[in-house]
Amino acid sequence: MPERDDQEREFDLRWADGAEFKEPSARARMLAARWKENPPGPVPFRGEADRRAPRRSSWVSTAVVLGCVAAVIVLLGYANFRAPY
Question: Contact, 1 vs 9, CB < 8 A?
Answer without folding.
Answer: no
